[in-house]
């Protein structure tokens, strides 16, 4: 696992020990950032279900102003901190120990980009998307990028968003939701 491009290009990232975390594959990560590459510079990013932190770190490396990494697994949070240190991006980051629903419900400052990569085949993605309908943490013009199993229907968008497009990569799918400016 490496940072694809930007200021931390080529830096190797640590995985979370054990089987509890499934990192996004390199090809899917490259595809996601090709899709949103012109929407990252200067933006505030939420990496919910952070795992290794590789998605938020990629966004920071590509010019995001700030990223918040949220996970409820202490081993994952330690890995995120280590990966931020290796990339030299820790000053632009906040690492939060919380489950996703509690964090979203707490109504943090709004974000421009929300990255969602929860465990597949759990209700977490559906639950978070429903919660995003009741809390206003996505700025106008913002985007939500979520990764899911390709054989599942895309989750319903939050009330303020529309499903812009679904991209399929083997057994994985990436759904892009947009909020009108």
Note down, in words, how this protein is organized.
This protein is 26% helix and 28% strand. With 181 residues, it is an alpha/beta fold. The protein has one domain (29-179): Rossmann fold (3-Layer(aba) Sandwich), CATH 3.40.50. It has a seven-stranded mixed β-sheet with strand order 3-2-1-4-5-7-6, covered by helices on one side.
Cα Rg:
15 Å
Q: What is the class in the CATH system?
A: Alpha Beta
Trace the largest sheet across and list its strands. Answer: 3-2-1-4-5-7-6
Task: Please provide the ordered H/E string of secondary-structure elements.
Answer: HEHEHEHEHEEE
Distance separating the two termini: 34 Å
Number of strands: 7
**pLDDT < 50 runs, ≥5 residues:** none
The number of domains is 1
Separate helix tally:
5
Shape: globular
Beta-strand residue fraction: 25-35%
Q: Considering the protein shown, what is the CATH homologous superfamily?
A: Vaccinia Virus protein VP39
**Main sheet overview:** 7 strands, mixed
CATH domain fold name: Rossmann fold
- Which architecture would the CATH scheme give at its second level? 3-Layer(aba) Sandwich
Q: What fraction, in percent, of the residue positions are helical?
A: 25-40%
Structural class: alpha/beta
Mean pLDDT: 92
């Amino acid at each position: 696992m490496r940072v694809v491009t930007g200021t931390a290009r080529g830096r190797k990232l640590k995985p979370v020990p054990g089987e509890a975390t499934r990192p996004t594959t390199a090809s899917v990560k490259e595809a996601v950032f090709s899709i949103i590459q012109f929407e990252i510079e200067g933006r505030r990013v939420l990496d919910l279900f952070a795992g290794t932190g590789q998605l938020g770190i990629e966004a920071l490396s590509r010019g995001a102003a700030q990223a918040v990494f949220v996970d409820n697994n202490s081993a994952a949070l330690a890995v995120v901190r280590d990966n931020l240190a290796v990339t030299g991006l820790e000053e632009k980051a906040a690492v939060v120990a919380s489950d996703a629903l509690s964090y979203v419900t707490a109504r943090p400052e709004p974000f421009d980009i929300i990255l969602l990569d929860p465990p597949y085949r759990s209700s977490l993605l559906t639950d978070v998307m429903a919660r995003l309908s009741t809390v206003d943490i996505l700025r106008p013009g913002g985007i939500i990028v979520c990764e899911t199993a390709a054989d599942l229907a895309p989750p319903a968008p939050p009330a303020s968003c529309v499903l812009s497009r679904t991209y399929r990569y083997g057994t994985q799918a990436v759904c892009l939701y947009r909020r009108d400016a």
